[in-house]
Amino acid sequence: MEYAFKERIGKPGLFTGRKEELTYFLKWIDDIKEEKSQSTALLARRKMGKTALIERLFNITFFKNDGVIPFYYEVREAKMWVVDFCQDFFLTFIYQYIAFKSRKPGYLDPENRSDFGKTIEIAKQEGLDYLCGIIEGAAHAVAHEKIDILWNIAREAPKTIAARQKEYIVQMIDEFQFLNAMIYWDKDKKNPADSLAGGYLSTAESKVAPLLVSGSWVGWLMNLLKMMLPARFRYYPLENMPQDEAVEMVYKYSQFFDTPVTEETAYLVAEMAEGSPFYISSIFRSLYKQKDLCTAKGLTEILEFETLNNQGNIKLTWMEYVNAAFNKVNDRNAKKIVLHLFKHKDRELTRADLLEQLNLDMTDEELEMKMEALVKGDIINQGQTHFDFRCVQDNIFDKVFRGVYQKEIEHFDVGEIKKEYTRSIEKMQRQYRELQGKK
Ligand SMILES: Nc1ncnc2c1ncn2[C@@H]1O[C@H](COP(=O)(O)OP(=O)(O)OP(=O)(O)O)[C@@H](O)[C@H]1O
Ligand SMILES: [Mg+2]
Asked: Which CATH superfamily includes the segment(s) 12-237?
């Protein structure tokens, strides 16, 4: 297969598994031709491989060339004036459309994505003259800063063209939650366009150009979808990889990064990573100097480095998210609450439990707001009801968090974390040997 779109995963061969999800979404994309597919949100905790999956879906759909045109757009985490954003969104779509129709992948990454005149020229050159009208319309709205009209043209462009040409388009929008947070009505970027996503209320109902949205802030994304786009999206959860795919990924990364594993350590890596592609990839990419993945001891050292060292990619990544969330909820109580939930891993706790068990000096309303912010920041999970909470079920995140805050709050010895890793790995080793009938 030709990989027209450069995937962030790097070498395309590194992409592993996700068989169930690929089967589901390829059928979902195929069903667009029957106008059966409903807009869907791909939801998962961060780093679960959402972007990798979406980019792969783009490439397969582009390559298959079977009646559905793929469009991929990532809303960037950078402040943008709404006019610049709409222009970028619109022209990205137009170029991807031209690339598909002309079968020239070069257009996926055009040299110049800001010149309407040049785009019209290219459309004509490729025999797609019918695009000129809409491009001129967008150019006019940009030139005159007609913001509402421009956002309508840009947002509806895939749907408009699909309907007009009797074609089908799949719109894949990553980091959808930033739509309401990174775009500004004014050039000085003081006045946030925090209702932009609401425009999808009708656009997302389209059956000729349905959406597949995703984002790295899943709590935030869910909140946006529920509040602004009720009943417009189906939710598709992306879970950890099943064990066979995780082990397959370990072997691929082992070969690619020239870091040998044994059959036993391959199993241990997959199990310790709990099937998270991000953890597997971070273990192999780790900057830890004496990297040895042929022994359980070597794996423990890498995990310890990745969890506790400031150069550990896992710690760096998680702390970025934790800091962003704690900026809004920055106090000792929030940290105490998260630590407390980690201590009661297997249970959900109610706000009343937390108030009582932690002796929190705050009202229930204050606690409610704090908990909401923590859920929105993916630091904790909502339980069965609005009143219940639980920690995220992730043994590595738990240790990163405790490594930083338990020390601060409870004078905890971080050496404990190493012991926990050693114990878990020993347990898995026993499991593995039992499986092998070796004991
Ligand atoms: N199927 C896969 N095969 C191999 N590696 C993968 C796969 N999925 C994800 N990865 C690797 O895992 C890491 C996280 O993947 P990705 O960025 O796609 O996750 P994400 O869910 O989009 O993350 P975020 O929440 O930050 O948006 C990357 O290093 C990626 O290369
Ligand atoms: Mg992503």
From this structure: P-loop containing nucleotide triphosphate hydrolases (3.40.50.300)
Condensed to tens digits (0 to 9), the pLDDT of residues 245-289 reads: 999 999 999 999 999 999 999 999 999 999 999 999 999 999 999
Do 46 and 145 touch, CB atoms closer than 8 A?
no
**Residue ranges of the domains in the chain?**
12-237, 241-439
pLDDT at residue 92, rounded to an integer: 97
Q: Summarize pLDDT for 112-170 with one digit per residue, the tens.
A: 788 999 999 999 999 999 999 999 999 999 999 999 999 999 999 999 999 999 999 99
Distance of CA 190 from the midpoint of ligand 1 (Å): 33
Q: Please give the structure tokens belonging to residue 380.
A: 């904790």
The residue to mutate among 6, 18, 43, 50, having the most atoms of ligand 1 within 8 angstroms of its beta carbon, is 50
Ligand 2 centre from 214 Cα, in Å? 8
Q: Is the CB of 26 under 6 A from ligand 1?
A: no
Q: Is the pLDDT of residue 360 over 90?
A: no
